[in-house]
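Blinded run. Sample ID left blank on purpose so nobody reads anything into the name before looking at the predicted structure. Input follows.
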Amino acid sequence: MAADLSQIVKAYDVRGVVPDQWDEPLAELFGAAFVHVTGADAIVVGHDMRPSSPGLSGAFARGAAAQGADVTMIGLCSTDQLYFASGSFGLPGAMFTASHNPAQYNGIKMCRAGAAPVGQDSGLSEIRTLVESWASAPEPAATPGTITERDTLKDYAAHLKSLVDVASIRPLKVVVDAGNGMGGHTVPTVFEGLALDLVPMFFELDGTFPNHEANPLDPKNIVDLQARVRAEGADLGLAFDGDADRCFVVDERGEPVSPSAITALVAARELAKHPGGTIIHNLITSWSVPEVVRESGGVPVRTRVGHSFIKEEMARTGAVFGGEHSAHYYFRDFWNADTGMLAALHVLAALGGQEGPLSELVASYDRYAASGEINSTVDDQTARMAAVRAAFETRDGVSIDTLDGLTVTAPTWWFNLRPSNTEPLLRLNAEAQDETTMTAIRDEVLSLVRATD
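Blinded prediction complete.
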């Protein structure tokens, strides 16, 4: 076998270094296993711009076709474009991408028909077990499937624009940093015909990422966008990650807009269309999110961090929208899948539907001082978590829950401390009614987490 799968199978995808852990023969086995586990007689496959993606996706398709499944290859696409194809065709899908990870990585994000997730408890472990059991390719089907190509970009763009009214917005100047990722492929088509003066940055598809990592969650990767927004006098800036399923926003001053504020803004807009609807948010989004949801007549539902948990709750509750601190945005009208592009269109519609600047528009959705996510490397995650809990659990007015890690809540502040599943890290998020309180809580928790005794 080409790889130790325990090192490359994650919560929702398969990821590894190419070609050391992850090569075409292994991808072919995954294609065969995907068909066996899903029972599909037809699937859809797409890929990003990484140099290894066409070969890996082609091998996956051959493995699937050898087991009798007809394969529709949609070629270069964003991850949410693959979800669109899975949803609109009613087929299971596989997207070859390593998202925001460095150039030497690649992987698969898999879904069932209708963009339903394939997670550790919903098929991924079965696929892994099956691949590990095969010394070579399994016996082919008596009648192999076909492999055909289909372009879905225009249909994807049309569907997104059917979900939010951007036709009548005032003219806006928008800088978009695609980070040499798939946003450079999708943005021109999605934004075509809109009242936008588009200033493109790094739209050339290049999976070696020559300008900066395609990970806008890291502040150093949006510095170029911030500077360009200021230089251009633009109304806003948008940054997409490598597979363009996440979108980050900066305002007219070049200041980052919190994904929690975007979640609250989009939630209010969705609730205007679906009064009384349910909105999903993970437990480290801002207090602003459930507040805005209630003020807008909706029902907020709090979940663990992670797309599989969000999508499960979306399906269980019939929620109209869900958002995460990491700038993943999920829509019922998009098969409960995440699409940063649709969130971007909502921001454009909201900004273009009034005369004020973006900073003023989002101010009412950004009410608290937040630390952002802070990672600490620790030798013993359990012991450090226990030390933090012991320091806070006896304080008056404090409540504790363990839905996902440790969440400690007081009347004017809260923090969450979660262990990483893949690295020896603890991740801290803290929020308070003012900067001074947030800083004090943040520093107290970090001193406990990073203590050496």
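Unblinding after everyone has recorded impressions. Residues 1-12 have pLDDT under 50 and may be disordered.
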